[in-house]
Design goal:
By secondary structure, the protein is mainly α. Helices cover 73% and strands 0% of the residues.
């Protein structure tokens, strides 16, 4: 489990809150990101500003493709039926796994599972992990997928 003081984990939580805000405003609304950053800065919490902007910008840029990947990877769950917090966590992780390529796949999955344990319901982490497993099978290179499979076997 990630330390609560880990700036990269805190950055993903900030990205999650910013993207979650879009569900109630326009997806291009930068106020969500600004409000979340201001809150953290006034509380003197460490976070990686570049990572937050990278994730939020990447999800915003690839939103349609990300949602198509999620829909394809969880066909029994239409996008509008997925719990909103789970959907945002999946959007972040799919961006990092498929489009971002800066974060190792197993780290992106671990972070998504931790976020879902922290913010989702009792079964969110299993759902998120399962969907991301399918995403990796369909969208990762064989070498990347092998690293994730090795982790499952540990």
């Amino acid at each position: 489990m990630r330390s609560k003081a880990d700036p990269r984990h805190t950055s993903r939580k900030l990205a999650l809150s910013s993207i979650f805000c879009w569900l109630f405003t326009e997806p291009t609304n930068d106020e969500c990101l600004l409000l979340s950053k201001d809150t953290l800065e006034t509380e003197d919490v460490e976070f990686d500003r570049d990572l937050v902007e990278y994730i939020v910008g990447g999800v915003k840029t690839h939103l349609v493709d990300i949602d198509n990947i999620i829909a394809d990877s969880a066909p029994e769950w239409p996008i509008d039926k997925i719990a909103k917090v789970d959907l945002v966590i999946l959007r972040i992780a799919v961006f990092e796994v498929v489009f971002g390529k800066k974060t190792p796949i197993k780290v992106a999955i671990d972070e998504a599972v931790e976020l879902s344990k922290e913010f989702g319901n009792d079964t969110s982490h299993k759902f998120v992990n399962g969907v991301l497993g399918t995403v990796v099978e369909k969208h990762a290179t064989p070498a990347e997928a092998e690293i994730v499979e090795e982790k499952k076997d540990e």
